[in-house]
Specification:
About 40% of the residues lie in helices and about 15% in strands. The chain is of the alpha+beta class and about 160 residues long. A hairpin with a 6-residue loop joins strand 1 and strand 2. The longest helix has 22 residues. The chain binds FE2/S2 (inorganic) cluster. FE2/S2 (inorganic) cluster binds next to helix 2 and helix 5. The site of FE2/S2 (inorganic) cluster (FES) has 9 residues, from helix 2 and helix 5. InterPro entries: NIF_FeS_clus_asmbl_NifU-like, NIF_FeS_clus_asmbl_NifU_N. This is Fe-S cluster assembly scaffold protein NifU. One of its GO terms (molecular function) is iron ion binding.
Amino acid sequence: MDYSEKVMDHFTNPRNVGEIPNCSACGTVGNAVCGDIMRIYLDIDDDGVIRDAKFKTFGCGAAIATSSMATTLIKGKTIQQALEVTNKAVMEALDGLPPVKVHCSLLAEEGIHAALWDYAEKKGIKIEGLEKPVSDISEKEHAHNVEIVDDPEDL
Ligand code: FES
């Protein structure tokens, strides 16, 4: 399978891997077909600007590359701007993905939405244009204690 240089770069040298202790929000999404899981952590300031974003992904190389790029793209952005970081925007920033890997970029978009959904719930606010992703497994994950590996290189 042909991957762009950018995909390979973000896969072999992923940015923003890890957790944010005491984060403002975190969301976990999973793809039921391939079984891959992605968790996104956000640190959002009082003005609604995303100060920091990190991720842990138990998944394929494209899922790791897209979470790396997605977290890079939303850092420093407002919540509304982060909603514009769609899977298409992530794919474009990575110079494309093979068609069979498009669903991996969707996981990144949904991971951001799941984390923002968590933020809205914690704050008791409604974020215009945001819907809870169907792949959101945050609650299930807490109930079953799903383990996510720290280092994608362990995969
Ligand atoms: Fe499932 Fe990539 S194969 S996220």
